[in-house]
Amino acid sequence: VFNSTETDVPLSKREQLNALSETLFSNKNARINLMAYAAGTTEENGSFPKRVSLARGVAVRAYIGEYLEGKHGENASKEALQRINVKAMGSKNAGGEPDRVDLFVIK
């Protein structure tokens, strides 16, 4: 969950992302789908929600890559990042917090 227009990965979620990164590293068949959301409507804010949600998804993906590079080296990071898909949903929220990134692990 992100604050309003914030796009940096919240400190409170980094430990969870670290554990998820290790799962991605240890299971070479695993993939992650990131569905990023942002509050607002396109009628009121134009493409702003879509751009914010994309920035959030990319930030989460980058965080995972940086974590894996620091722990396991550049090759591990590059290989894992190829298995992460980012989808910017903008304000198309199916329920829950409007400012968030959902992560789905496919094994």
Describe the structure.
- By secondary structure, the protein is an alpha+beta fold.
- The chain has 4 helices and 3 strands, in the order H-E-H-H-H-E-E.
- The protein has helices spanning 14-26, 42-45, 48-72, 74-81; strands at 31-37, 84-90, 101-106.
- Helix 1 crosses helix 3 (48-72).
- The chain starts with 13 loop residues before the first helix and ends with a strand.
- The mean pLDDT is 92.
Inertia-based shape: elongated
Main sheet: strand order: 2-1-3
The biggest sheet, with number of strands, parallel, antiparallel or mixed sense and barrel status, is:
3 strands, mixed
Q: Give a count of the beta strands, DSSP E runs of length 2 or more.
A: 3
For the record, give the distance between the C-alpha atoms at the N and C termini, rounded to a whole number: 24 Å
Structural class computed from helices and strand pairing: alpha+beta
What fraction of the residues are assigned to beta strands by DSSP?
15-25%
> Which parts are unreliable, with pLDDT below 50 for 5 consecutive residues or more?
none
- Order of H and E elements: HEHHHEE
Helix content: 40-55%
Mean pLDDT: 92
Q: How many whole angstroms does the radius of gyration measure?
A: 14 Å
**DSSP helix count?**
4
